[in-house]
Amino acid sequence: MEYTPRLKKKYQTEVVNNLKGNYKSVMQVPKLVKICLNQGIGSASSDKKQIEAAQNEMTMITGQKAVLTKSSKDISNFKLRKGMPVGVRVTLRGDKMYEFLDRFVTSTLPRVRDFSGIPPKGFDGRGNYTMGIKEQIAFPEISIDKINKITGMDITFVTDTDSDEGALALLKELGLPFQKHDDFERQRKEQIEKARKEKRREAEEQAKLEASNEENSDGAENAKEESGTIENVSEQENNTSDTKESEAKENNQDLSEEADKSES
Fold this sequence. Notes:
CATH architecture of the largest domain: 2-Layer Sandwich
Shape: elongated
CATH topology of the largest domain: 50s Ribosomal Protein L5, Chain: A
Distance between the termini: 158 Å
Number of helices: 5
Structural class: alpha+beta
């Protein structure tokens, strides 16, 4: 008995029946042509071990030998020469394409961190959808203990239709979990961002208040010191004036005594 992937059988039996009402002929129902995976290696283009690791990881993920992509010209700013490897890529068609899509929907996407649905904004206007995976460890084929560097990749779903609406309906029927309430998700993100800004503003105000309190306490201490200094100066002045008065009184008494003696 010939083996048929589950999603391929689903497309032939369910998806075509669900979408044929939108078209005049069954032959006009869009279908998935290929899935392209592309991963750049960035600054590791001169590291042979990193290139081999990326190629092996892509091969394990897709079940098909990954091909190196090489630069087409020299770029001195990136220390890149023509013919140097800059990434790896794989193009899946036929049964391997449906098998990868099945594993991607059922196993990989649920392992993505903070996953809340695929945003329906990756269409290019010609019926092709591109999305990104930030960490290759989301694929169950990759062991986190055996990787040297966490990298991402781009995945492109190519269909035979030029309509983004038709491609979206096809991918939804195949099981890709697109965000159903885009407006609600946008409002939720705005509320989260607003709450973060409010917390940041409160923290800044609290810091300013503490700084002003410290300045006021320092000012009060300085004022106390100044007042104490002024009191000491005034006391010294009072003591000086009292001394002068007593000396003047003594001088007056001496003068009066001398005058009395001279008169006698």
